[in-house]
Design a protein that fits this description.
The complex is a heterodimer of chains A (about 650) and B (about 40). Chain A is built from 20 helices and 9 strands. Chain A has about 650 residues and is α+β, with helices and mostly antiparallel strands. In chain A, helix 8 runs antiparallel to helix 9 and helix 10 runs antiparallel to helix 14. Chain A is globular, with a radius of gyration of 27 Å. Chain B is mainly α and about 40 residues long. Helix content of chain B is about 85%, strand content about 0%. Chain B is rod-shaped and about 35 Å long. The C terminus of chain B is likely disordered. Classes of the chains: A alpha+beta (about 650), B mainly alpha (about 40). Chains A and B meet through helix 1 and helix 2 of A and helix 1 and helix 2 of B. Chain A: GO terms for molecular function: heme binding; heme transmembrane transporter activity; lyase activity. Chain A: It is found in: Cell inner membrane. Chain A: This is Heme lyase CcmF/NrfE family subunit.
Amino acid sequence: MADLGRFGLLGALALALYAVAAAALGGRAQRWEIVRSAVRALWGVAALEALAGGVLVAALLRRDYSFAYVAGHTRDAQALLYTVTAFWGGMEGSLLLWAVVLSAYSLAALRSVARERPQLLAGVAAVCAAVAGFFLVLLTSVASPFVTVPFPPQDGRGMNPLLLNPWMAIHPPALYLGFVGLTVPFAIVMAALWSGAAEEAGVLLARRWMLWAWYCLSLGLGFGAKWSYVVLGWGGYWAWDPVENAALMPWLVATAFLHSVMIQERRAMLRQWTVVLVVLAFGLSIFGTFLTRSGVLSSIHSFTQSPLGGYFLAFLAIAMLAAFGLVASRWEALRSPNVLDSALSRESAFLFNNVVLLTIAFAVFLGTVFPVLSEALTGRRMNVGPPFFDHIVTPLALGLLLLMGIGPLIAWRRASAESLRTSFLTPGAAGVVVGLALTAAGMRPPGAVLAFALCGFVGGTVALEFARGIRVRRAHHAEGILPSLAGLVLHNRRRYGGYVVHLGILLVVAGVTGSQVFSTQRVATVRPGDAVQIAGYRVRFDGLEQATREGALVVSARLRAFAGTRDLGPLEARKNLYLADSEATTEVALRSTPRDDLYVVLTGWTAGGDATLRLLVNPLVMWIWAGGLVLSFGAVLAMLPERRPVPVLVEAPAGAWSPGGP
Amino acid sequence: MTDAVMVILAVAIAAWVLAPLRRPADPSASRRGHAARESDS
């Protein structure tokens, strides 16, 4: 079986290399039969990678421990779900997932490119095949999931217990769908520049793909935060961990792109900038994978010991040199005919938004690589902790929130003082009312009051935009407010989807502010029957229980929560001790309401039945998850195709490739 | 058995991928492709 997997990967590598050469040659010589052959080769790559993936899944399900990967990432007692998710639980499997996802994306991209911009087909095929080729080189050399051992063990080592959680089952695929998705806009833009179509550089076609990748990255970040909150048991959801930052950086750049591309569409401005953002987003997706897979994060020395890091850096350097070289060669052709008319314009607000997003991305990049840089330069590893990120990112994020409220209110090109006064009156008043009300209610940290006031301002802006749209629509259609709202959103999905995403973001900001600024914590050692008071809650400890489950000794603290005299019901905080791995995982006792989360962690216990509990009350955490849902809804809305037909610029070459298949 | 599957797969995929090269090229398709490219630049 392992032979079949190895064959699949080697065959896919050969086909990918052929596809690069054939697509480049066919595109350059305008020989469509060669391009068609290259596209077929990419279908072959996808089929053979699917075969390799199937072999690995079958080996995992059969628990075939003659595969070193299977023995390392599953065991007899592992639940079926986690036996399947072990596919991406280790380095080799996750790289195979990268390759499989990339192939699926490549085929989908080729279909849409063949339909809408067939002259880009050869370039897109060449770039997708080159990226696939790189991952296949890794999978067939230093990171093969099909290494076998002559004497298989009786049982496997199993997956890291921390990963045995439903959120961790879906977090990596979502993140990978986002990371890999950034390859497609990159391929489209590179193909456009290569083919000489520099006037819009394929950016408008790339936008839809970027939006999808951005959506998947958002989901991945959200799932990761939820996992961190419920499994790691430290009370938070975001720790500025390098792995989190690796996903945040391309997300920030993709967000900047999604805003700057609107200026390109509307005013044909920022063309050079949007192309640079596409290249940067792709580069950061490879850099993120490098960070998490090279071992460089634990120490620069482990990086030099692992060949994977060297491969990644070499590929990243070549890809960035080639991409920026191509961009530089088309720089003048990309120059915009239009200039900024006024600092008081929507273009200007979007430009500021881009500058702030890129500044945050750069700060996160600097903080993430600082330990590596310091170790390389001075021999001493110096970490910048969360305070560095908090100090830099918080004011920038508040500035971004302000721009989120301002952008939709300002007119394109040039705004008059009168129009500004009219537009800002309601949202500005909403922000001021929120700020004053919270101050009057006793909220003191000025940063928190400012953040909530800005949320009120953004909320006011979004509400005003919806109200204006409904008013205009009702002037033309005789319908009620709700049908009018539905009609408005359905006929302008992209615009109002974007506003719904803004609503989601402001919910997330409100949740982060509430939970970061107003969290309370207590640590207490208690005997059965004792109760601990915290922030209006009383938590009674009713005793410990022990059980053995799925290879772990599970110690549970039975708790009961009260708010005043009201009984809120039982809770259970658990510690799972995986003795074979000397690992422990936490299952938090959690009671969530829109107002706050009661969060209890069992941190220790004695043979006499006493327990040490860490209790937190984190306000507004539920708003973060609700914000994620709202953001998802808005993003899906914005991704749905518009009802207006997309104009087809050129007729597809009949002999080149049929959109219906290879 | 596995070896036979691999050989058959390899031959079938290679033949399918290379098939467009063996067909006479459609010159009108190439011209249209060229025109498409020119209309875009």
